[in-house]
Design brief:
By secondary structure, this protein is of the alpha+beta class. The chain has nine helices and 19 strands. It has a six-stranded antiparallel beta sheet. Strands 7-14-15-16-19 form a five-stranded mixed β-barrel.
Length: about 450
């Protein structure tokens, strides 16, 4: 893996070669990663994996048309060939009036801020194995756990660099450390599986592996002997580890590309009151040690904190440059890049701000409801907002979580669900999209 300075130099060199080959404009991106992971199962070493990759990609614009190409060879001869091929491809491509680099006057300027994303801590395979064993041992120690799918620990580091022909050049590195455990409770056809995991930028921020393992074991045991639930309309409470998917559907619908294609259930709702006024959803790409933090976006634009939903009101779309041009607007610093192809829209560290009541208080008045801990399938229509997903979890009876239930479906429409949503105060930030426990009244349950 190159250093940030070396990665910038390679990107700048590739862009310069493209200009010499005849490109009107262009940008180059370098993406590299290296990771090591260890998995154990039933106390024995099962897998040790080491992976490394690096890729440089070039996007060029010639006469209103564009082309993208990439390579894993970073040598001078390879970059020469990459540039000439990309320009030749662009000359054969159809023109796209919306394609192009980000506005020059909006480019990130100045030094890259230190978001403390890169941890110098190195984990040896022995260290990773010890962490994985501790997590699995703690999970298997929970009464009722009968088998294990394994404990794992990993550590890695990645680097992203971008250079454009109109003046931007930047790079940053980020590390990651993670621990997980997955175990089985019960016997035969009554077996139930569950898991727990944590991932952080810095090793010091990880929860103890024994805590992660114990959580996995306790979750699996709680799911034993699930019953069935009757069909009807009831309040549904979403556990935080699945509640964040509701915000994920919102983010997808806020994409400028979806709006430009008129393929979003939020069409014509910019500025609308989608949620109760107590709901605020924020996006902070500059969060220190954030799992999705980044000092600049995939087009070289500065990133900044923003409220996506402010006191229940939608504040606008998430746009890369192409979508912004289609909508007659300006990009919002939400472009992301892969190793090849055009940018696409992604948010960063998204948080639905916590409410003022505990989860117990949020459920206290529910005589008969459902608490969802797992969602199954992809039954969401991004155009209409219709929502229908398989689920499992627990009944709520007289304000208390009761017996486990499985094989039912929760359904509604996301616009109605957002309007009826209330939040508890148990927010934990570690997933990238984070919410507290969420309650949605009036959802349809399909069971027995």
């Amino acid at each position: 893996m190159l250093s940030p300075a070396e990665a910038r130099e390679r990107c700048e060199a590739l862009v310069e070669r493209a200009r010499r080959a005849g490109a009107d404009a262009g940008d180059a991106v370098y993406i590299a990663s290296g990771s090591e992971s260890v998995q154990v199962r039933l106390g024995a070493l099962e897998d040790v994996e080491r992976s490394e990759s690096e890729h440089i990609g070039l996007r060029v614009f010639v006469g209103g048309a564009s082309a993208s190409i990439g390579s894993t060879d970073l040598g001078d001869a390879a970059l020469d060939e990459l540039a000439s091929r990309a320009v030749a491809m662009a000359r054969l491509a159809p023109a796209d009036k919306f394609a192009g680099l980000a506005p020059e006057d909006m480019l990130f300027r100045g030094p890259v801020p230190d978001l403390d994303l890169d941890d110098a801590t190195e984990r040896s395979p022995q260290d990773l194995r010890r962490l994985a064993e501790e997590a699995e041992d703690a999970a298997r120690a929970i009464a009722g756990v009968t088998n294990s799918e394994g404990g794992s620990a990993s550590a890695g580091r990645g680097l992203f660099a971008l250079a454009t022909s109109h003046g931007f050049s930047g790079a940053y590195a980020a590390s990651s450390h993670s621990i997980s455990a997955s175990v089985v409770a019960g016997e035969g056809s009554a077996m139930q599986r569950d898991y727990s995991w944590r991932s952080t930028r810095h090793a010091a921020d990880l929860l103890p592996p024994a805590r992660i393992g114990a959580e996995a074991g306790e979750r699996a045991v709680r799911r034993l002997n699930p019953g069935r639930v009757k069909s009807g309309q009831v309040p549904v409470v979403f556990d935080p580890r699945v509640a964040n998917s509701l915000v994920g559907h919102l983010l997808g619908a806020m994409s400028g590309a979806s709006i430009a294609r008129r393929a979003s259930f939020l069409l014509d709702r910019d500025g609308a009151q989608l949620f109760d006024s107590a709901i605020t959803i924020s996006d902070d790409p500059l969060s220190i040690r954030g799992m999705r933090s980044r000092p600049f976006d995939g087009e070289g634009l500065p990133t900044a904190p923003r409220k996506l939903v402010d006191a229940g009101k939608l504040t606008g779309w998430l746009m890369d440059t192409a979508a912004a041009r289609q909508l007659g607007s300006r990009p919002t610093g939400h472009a992301s890049r892969g190793a090849s192809g055009a940018p696409h829209v992604t948010a960063s560290n998204v948080v639905l701000e916590p409410g003022t009541v505990t989860p117990a208080e949020l459920m206290a008045d529910i005589a008969d409801g459902v608490y969802v801990t797992e969602l199954i399938g992809q039954g969401v229509n991004a155009v209409t907002g219709d929502y229908s997903r398989g689920a499992s979890g627990f009944r709520i009876v007289n304000g208390e979580i009761a017996e486990a239930i499985a094989e039912f479906t929760v359904a509604g429409n996301l616009i109605d669900m957002f309007a009826a949503l209330t939040a508890a105060n148990d927010l934990e930030v570690y997933r990238g999209i984070d919410t507290p426990t969420l309650r949605v009244d009036g959802m349809s349950i399909a069971g027995d």
